[in-house]
VWF/SSPO/Zonadhesin-like cysteine-rich domain-containing protein
Amino acid sequence: MKAFSAVLIVALVAQASASPCTDICNGSCDMVQQTVGLLFPQIATIVAPNIEICRQSCTAVCTCTDGCTAQCNPAYEACISAAKAAYNPFSMVVCQAQYAVCAGPCNMQCSSTIVSGLVQQVQGFAATISQTVSVAVGQLMGPTSAP
């Protein structure tokens, strides 16, 4: 139980200090891998490929999301600094709205890109499963002879 608590505390500290999507998402994948390795070492090798898939999914999702943040944050930070300097809380609301106007279309584009990528991954996975099943059935049936 102490080991689990230690892993949980390390994971929470890592999550709290990470800010971009990629760091947070990959941190979640790593936390699962470490927890499984610690609590269920006998299945760690089975889980390892899934952790890699988790990281690849993080990269696909977060590359776009982090790009939107990088695109919109400079104007937002400048707006917030000016609002704070002017002691104007209403301006901070305006800054939030301007950020939403910037990030909204970017995030919508990310969503369509992500959905398209997921559909392609599912199609590829289905083709791989189909091929694997065909090979397995062929091996079970053995060689066929023509009459």
Residues 3-17 have pLDDT under 50 and may be disordered. The first helix runs from residue 2 to 17.
